[in-house]
């Protein structure tokens, strides 16, 4: 009888807390450095979400390191009350293969709130690279085997994953140069210290538009419509058949977050994804806001599981792991 009364009381308290949600600031953890592609998406999304959550303050906390796993681990261990959330990219699906000692279980330690967007990637080069189009770049890569420096933002970063697949697709080994974030990688590319990089349009569109880098192709199967990117061919049409890499972002909460809170968050997310200002900002960067079944928590989780199965063999074939 006492156990039953305790259970009823606990359920009543949880329901009351959920009904009041949110009644204090929400922290959104971004598992990468400020200024990077995921950070940009998270900050734009936070503004759109704030409007749907009674103008509740949403604080962005950048917890970078270990390819995004430190920030994700922090959220996995946070109190499951809806006040600590995670905005993460495809690294949610690739970390299980990249890290032998991952401090959380991707499919078990989080509640899935919904998918946000899909971000194409672009293949870019230093401004003084001799090649002016992809055909010329491919010849240059063939002629300079063993001397090519391929930059990325660190193990597990979107640029790292794209670079791995690009090397495998061309059958050309390159010297991978990892950085602690996208910003320093881009700085060295602009300065000519590295040769090429494959990175998200959210980070490269401005550089392409200003002519500070050479742009060769996009990683989607169809050309993009953003003004600065519309003339770029796809890698698939350029001869790298079947090449298709899209970086997506999703929202997650700690496992055990009350269902009413998750329902509130999902409803707010769905409305935020229809916010004209948010859509406009994303489209300007070449990103596509998701409006399909993956906005649903269950389908979001199924999608991540499918991505785990897709990227696992690719990463294992490359033999690039971390402890």
Automatic annotation (TrEMBL):
<comment type="similarity">
    <text>Belongs to the UPF0065 (bug) family.</text>
</comment>
<protein>
    <recommendedName>
        <fullName>Tripartite-type tricarboxylate transporter receptor subunit TctC</fullName>
    </recommendedName>
</protein>
<dbReference type="Pfam" id="PF03401">
    <property type="entry name" value="TctC"/>
</dbReference>
<dbReference type="InterPro" id="IPR005064">
    <property type="entry name" value="BUG"/>
</dbReference>
<feature type="signal peptide">
    <location>
        <begin position="1"/>
        <end position="19"/>
    </location>
</feature>
<dbReference type="InterPro" id="IPR042100">
    <property type="entry name" value="Bug_dom1"/>
</dbReference>
<keyword id="KW-0732">Signal</keyword>
């Amino acid at each position: 009888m006492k156990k039953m009364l305790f259970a009823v009381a606990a359920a009543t308290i949880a329901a009351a807390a959920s009904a009041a949600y949110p009644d204090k600031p929400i922290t959104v953890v971004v598992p990468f450095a400020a200024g990077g592609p995921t950070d940009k998406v998270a900050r734009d999304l936070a503004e759109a979400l704030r409007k749907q959550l009674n103008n509740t303050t949403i604080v962005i906390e950048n917890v970078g390191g270990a390819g995004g796993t430190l920030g994700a681990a922090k959220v996995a261990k946070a109190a499951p009350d809806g006040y600590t959330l995670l905005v993460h990219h495809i690294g949610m699906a690739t970390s299980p293969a990249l890290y032998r000692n991952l401090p959380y279980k991707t499919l078990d330690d989080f509640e899935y709130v919904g998918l946000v967007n899909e971000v194409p990637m672009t293949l870019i080069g230093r401004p003084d690279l001799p090649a002016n189009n992809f055909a010329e770049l491919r010849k240059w890569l063939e002629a300079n085997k063993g001397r090519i420096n391929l930059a990325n933002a660190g193990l597990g970063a979107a640029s790292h994953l794209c670079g791995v697949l690009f090397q495998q697709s061309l059958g050309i080994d390159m010297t991978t140069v990892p950085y602690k974030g996208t910003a320093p990688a881009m700085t060295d590319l602009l300065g000519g210290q590295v040769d090429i990089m494959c990175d998200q349009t959210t980070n490269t569109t401005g550089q392409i538009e200003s002519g500070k880098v050479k742009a060769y192709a996009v990683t989607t199967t169809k050309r993009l419509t953003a003004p600065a990117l519309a003339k770029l061919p796809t890698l698939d049409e350029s001869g790298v058949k079947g090449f298709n890499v899209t970086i997506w972002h999703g929202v997650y909460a700690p496992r055990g977050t009350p269902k009413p809170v998750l329902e509130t968050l999902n409803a707010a997310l769905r409305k935020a994804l229809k916010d004209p200002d948010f859509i406009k900002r994303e489209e300007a960067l070449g990103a596509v806001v998701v409006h399909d079944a993956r906005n649903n928590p269950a389908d979001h989780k199924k999608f991540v599981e499918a991505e785990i199965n897709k990227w696992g063999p690719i990463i294992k074939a490359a033999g690039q792991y971390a402890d």
